[in-house]
Structure formats: C-alpha cells, structure tokens
Amino acid sequence: MNIIEAVKNIVADYEHISDFSGGIDIDFTKESSGNMGLFPTGDSLIKKDILGNETRRHNFQLMATADSFNDFDRLNNSSWLLSFTYYLNRIRNFIIDEDDEKRVYITGITPSNAMLYGYLNPDAQDGVVYQLQISAEYKTERK
Amino acid sequence: MAHYLDASMTETPTYELLGADLEEYTIEMNANVETKQNILGDSATYISGYEPQASVEPYIADKDTQLFTRLQTIIDERQALDKLKSTAVEVHLWETSSGENTFPAYREDVLIEPVSYGGDTTAYQIPFNLHYVGNRTKGTFNVSTKTFTATSVNTN
Fold first, then answer.
1. Taking CB atoms and an 8 Å cutoff, what residues of chain B touch A53?
2. Are A138 and A107 in contact (CB under 8 A)?
3. Is A141 in Cβ contact with B19 (below 8 Å)?
4. pTM score, two decimals?
5. Per-residue model confidence as pLDDT tens for chain A (143 residues)
6. For a tag on chain B, would you pick the N or C end, based on fewer CB atoms within 10 A?
7. Residue B43: which residues within 8 A CB-CB, separation 6 or more?
C-alpha cells in the first residue's frame, strides 16, 4: 500500500462516510450528489536523518458533491465536513507498509480549507461541490 | 560513519545506533590552541589537545530502547560524576570490511550530559550532549552483533 491508498482507506473508514453513498474515486468525481473524489496533488521530502529515515508530506484535495436545496442541507454539509476534519486530526501512527527492513506510517494528517467550492451547474438546486485540502505527513524508518 | 553509544548500566556494553530523527551529528573538536611569541617577535602556534563534544538533539524518547532507560535513570536520580560515564564507538563504514559486517572503528570514553527533558505535544524528548573524555582505542565493530573488539591499546 502507498500513501494515496492509505489516505483513501482512512477516508473510507470514517463512520459517517456512508452519507456519500457514491463511493470515493481517485482523480475523479462523478457529477451527481453523494460522490467523493480524492485528488493527490504531490509529494515532498520534509527532512531526512543521518540513518536515511525520511519524513515526507503528501497533499490531497478532496472534492465531495452534495445536495443544496436549502440552508438546512448546507448546514448539514458543513457540519459533516467539520466532524470529518476532527476525525482526520486524530489519525496517528497509521501503518502504510511494514516488513523486516522498514516501516512506513502516517504520523499525522492536517485538514484545511473545508468549504463550498462550486456548483455542479449554474442552478445550485442540482447540487454543489465542497472541497477539503488534506496534508498527510508520513515517515519511512529503517529497522 | 556510524555512531554507537553504550546504553547499558552494567559491565556488558549494549551499543545503540545514534541517528534516528537526527539530521546532523557533528563532533566539535574544540581544540586547545595556544599562540606564543618569542623575544625575536616570531609567533608559534600549538594545539595541545582537544575537548570533543557532540549534541544529540532531537532525541525522541522510545521506551522500548535501553538508551531511553539509561537517560531517564540519569534524570530521575539526578546522577552525576562516574554514573554519567559510558563509551561511544565511531565506525568507519567507508573502509574495507575486515570480516562480515565488521568495520574499523574507534571507541572512546564519554560523559552523557542530559540537556533537558520534556518537549511539546509531538513527543517526549531528552536532548543530550556527549563529552568525549579520552581512552580512545582502535579496533573493529560488528554492526550486526554490535560488538567492539580492540586491536590496539589506548591511542591517547
């Protein structure tokens, strides 16, 4: 498993993920309400110690489509994003890969900019798109 | 170069590799430099010795390691003097191996100086300094068994 698959699994394991019954796609979001797309936006090396262990960061953009008939819908959507943000903040030491020589694990996830991103079409009644930026920091340690 | 520190509190050494989370490990030589001027006006410069010292910061405490146990004991008991003595080994990994996983190395007596303990919300940290105090011995080090074998007497 790599960092992209790991974050997708973490998102899929959220207790209220069933609110988005359309599932989670990578680099794609279906244009109907109730779908999610996880878009990786790049990986970078943060630091490296003298043993060769690396701390890296992978950024994602999460796009989610939802109903927006009235303020009740939109409050529900934003509240969902808020509790999802709390859930991601609690992720610690999530194992991505481990064998006899190395261990790769997520040290923490920083979500940000959870907000309404746009409309599926000019008429907001057909649904809207929310975004959440996710920054996942992970370490590769030799044993 | 690899650096190992004896973390045991008994006569049998237990060498642990230094370097996790350390982006840099530098031994400052701290040479004792003296300059004298004779009656002819000529200057002569002498280096009479060294006081090597290295900083291990950050050190992220790992309760499953012997080094953490040693450091925490020093802190808990406010140990001083001989109780801070240990040995450190520098392994020359770039030199030709003299056997399987065995490389030329130097062992030297050190004093462990805890600088502080605690830290922020990320981890419990115990940064410390190592003061190299002599009795430097040439030998070999097996990186698999983590054992040092002396091949010559004290080079001081």
1. 20-21
2. yes
3. no
4. 0.84
5. 999 999 999 999 999 988 887 888 999 988 888 889 999 999 999 999 999 999 999 999 999 999 888 888 889 999 999 999 999 999 999 999 999 999 999 999 999 999 999 888 777 677 899 999 999 999 999 98
6. C
7. B35, B36, B37
